[in-house]
Amino acid sequence: MEPKPENLSIEKTITLFRPVGQKEMELIRQSGNIAFPPRLPFQPIFYPVLYQDYAVQIARDWNTKDAASGYVGYVTRFQVRAEFLHRYPIRTVGSSQHREYWIPAEELAEFNQNIVGKIEVIAEFRP
Asked: How would you classify residue 72: left for phi > 0, otherwise alpha for psi between -120 and 50, otherwise beta?
């Protein structure tokens, strides 16, 4: 039996989802699918969600009806280091499926640094 390297560790991550519109998706792609763009001045928080169904609901039912979203809704999926997320409480903003993290806009760069792997698109909705 071969010994395990002592410095090998398996990083714990949490899978999150984020509904985004066309412009935000373009900016994510420009980053190489590794970061979310900075928040706009009127957006004080970044809210990734815990459940795919919740992200689908927003992308399908809200983004496709919103001019600012380009009438397109994407659902993204990505992994974030669990150790980083532990500093933020999970917020329930409706039913038990409507759970999300609230990341202050000024901490989004640090959030992006804690994404493990790529941000992937798992669904797309159009009117």
From this structure: beta
Report the chain (127 residues): mean pLDDT per 10 consecutive residues: 54 96 98 97 96 98 96 98 97 95 98 98 97
Give the pLDDT score at 11.
Answer: 83
Q: How many domains does the chain have?
A: 1
- Among 27, 5, 11, CA closest to 85: 11
In a domain, 2, yes or no: no
Which CATH number do you get for residue 98?
Answer: 3.20.170
- Per-residue model confidence (pLDDT) at position 10: 75
For the four alpha carbons of 104, 52, 28 and 10, in that order, the dihedral sign comes to positive
**Structural domain contains residue 102:** yes
With beta carbons less than 8 A apart as the criterion, state whether 53 and 62 touch: no
H or E segment and range at residue 92: strand 90-92
pTM confidence score? 0.91
Domain of 77 in residue numbering reads as: 13-125
Show the tokens assigned to 49: 């969600």
